[in-house]
Amino acid sequence: VQLVESGGGSVQAGGSLRLSCATSGYHFSSCDMGWFRQTAGQERALVSSLSMHGTPFYIDSVKGRFTITKDKDKNTLHLQMNSLKPGDTAMYYCVAGLWPITGVRDAVYWGQGTQVTVS
Asked: Cα–Cα distance between 95 and 107 in angstroms, integer?
């Protein structure tokens, strides 16, 4: 199983980024997926998840700004991030799991991460 993130970068506050996670090696539609983020000295924290049935979840601080979607034709997960804030600065990780993702323990597969910096 491979998860490869892309789309991170540096933006000014109020800007937008779209993270992508290209997947391979498993049945894309059979897994719950999500995005975690981590800052220096902090544990990885769930940002958003998408169940295999298409039900999204967002933490309160990103509701209305972030949108998680899945492109089944391309086996790719996306996270559209709008109205970015300095507090969104972190390494973002794509994850896949075999059941609903509510925390680190539910994430079976991890990507290598992509850095998002908001100034």
From this structure: 6
- CA 89 – CA 75 distance, rounded (Å): 26
Distance CA 119, CA 113 (A): 19
Alpha helices in the chain (DSSP H): none
Report yes or no: 1 and 25 within 8 Å, Cβ to Cβ: yes
Annotate 57-71 with b (16+ C-beta within 10 A) or e (fewer): bbeeebeeebebebe
Report which of 90, 88, 98, 105 is spatially closest to residue 33, judged by C-alpha positions.
98
Q: How confident is the model at residue 85 (pLDDT cuts 50, 70, 90)?
A: very high
Specify the amino acid at residue 103.
Answer: G
CA–CA dist 89, 55 (Å, integer): 25
pLDDT, tens digit (0-9, with 9 covering 90-100), for 29-83: 788 999 999 999 999 999 999 998 999 999 999 999 999 999 988 899 999 999 9
- Copy the structure tokens of residue 105: 């323990």
